[in-house]
Design a protein that fits this description.
37% helix
Length: 95
């Protein structure tokens, strides 16, 4: 099955990946970097430190997009409500 995506000025790599996700299960380092918003260097560093799930096949590093999604969801930081018990939201960037 082939899905054609019409690229417009408003379409981003993530928009394209949402459609390609249906047909392309394995991604290369640069594709994972674009998909996650992280740099290629960061993805490579995570591979070297075994912090991101990957597959090495015949010298090629590949990533299962389902595992990348799970990895990203596992890194999600939950919000701490500042109204309960006097705690602060550690993710607040407001000055």
């Amino acid at each position: 099955m082939c899905i054609t995506v019409k690229h417009t000025a408003a379409s981003t790599w993530r928009d394209v990946m949402k459609v390609e996700k249906l047909t392309q299960r394995y991604l290369r380092v640069s594709q994972v970097a674009d998909y996650t918003g992280l740099s290629v260097a960061t993805i490579r560093a995570r591979v070297l430190s075994k912090q991101i799930p990957y597959i090495k096949r015949e010298g090629c590093v590949l990533f299962d997009i389902n595992q990348v999604d799970a990895w990203m969801e596992g890194a999600q930081v939950t919000r701490i409500d500042s109204n309960e018990g006097g705690t602060e939201d550690v993710n607040s960037f407001d000055a």
